[in-house]
Write a structure and sequence with these properties.
The protein is α/β, with parallel strands linked by helices. The chain is built from 7 helices and 7 strands; from the N terminus they run ββααβααββααββα.
């Protein structure tokens, strides 16, 4: 995805708004934020691997954030992080993000989370070329991994909190988090679909010969 472009602030006191690239759309961008957050909780955080974390930060995460004061950002080389420290960080962050996302099924908790995310500066307003408005995650120098992931959650939740209240759930079989209206009632994610749930398609009739 192309870098986010900052819109010019007008002379009034209106808040700063970021402009998405010309081909990007707010809804699709929010989908990307949601996917990146779920990818961290369901895969990266559970892997406890340094390589997976670096890949996630350089890929899905970087594609959906705008960095503030990039020049002053001191990068930490992956080799400087001890494997045991990375494992503890990933485990702790995964648990905290997961607990936060689950709490958002409660509307009151969702409102509180939104205010906290805005007050902490985890997201900025954004607008696409069609005028639709949403939110973009913000990255700061030396930002905690927890806040980086939660900024993705906030950008998604602020746009469509109803999804967290109606179609979000934690799989009772594997603990994965998912957005799936059809499977929320059963509490089982698509990875645990039984054969009885699969509908067999009737064989198609051959096309009649022309003439």
């Amino acid at each position: 995805m192309a870098p986010l472009v900052q819109m010019r602030r007008d002379m009034s006191s209106s808040p700063l708004v970021m402009a998405l690239p010309a081909g990007a759309r707010v809804a699709r961008f929010a989908d990307g934020c949601r996917t990146a957050a779920l990818d961290f909780v369901n895969r990266v955080g559970a892997s406890r691997g340094k390589e997976q974390l670096v890949e996630w930060l350089r890929g899905p995460y970087r594609a959906h954030v705008v960095t503030i004061a990039r020049a002053s950002h001191r990068r930490i080389a992956p080799a400087s992080l001890r494997p045991s420290s990375v494992q503890k960080l990933l485990t702790r962050t995964r648990e905290q993000v997961g607990a936060t996302m689950i709490s958002l099924t409660n509307p009151e908790e969702g409102v509180a989370f939104g205010y906290e995310a805005l007050a902490a500066g985890l997201v900025y307003r954004c607008q696409d070329a069609r005028g639709a408005q949403g939110w973009v995650p913000v990255a700061y120098p030396r930002m905690r991994l927890l806040d980086r992931v939660l900024s993705l959650v906030a950008a998604d939740h602020l746009l469509r909190a109803g999804d967290y209240e109606s179609i979000f759930f934690q799989c009772s079989a594997c603990g994965a988090l998912a957005f799936d209206a059809e499977r929320r009632g059963a509490g089982i994610c698509s990875a645990h679909v039984s054969r009885s749930d699969v509908r067999e398609l009737a064989p198609q009739q051959p096309l009649a010969a022309a003439g």
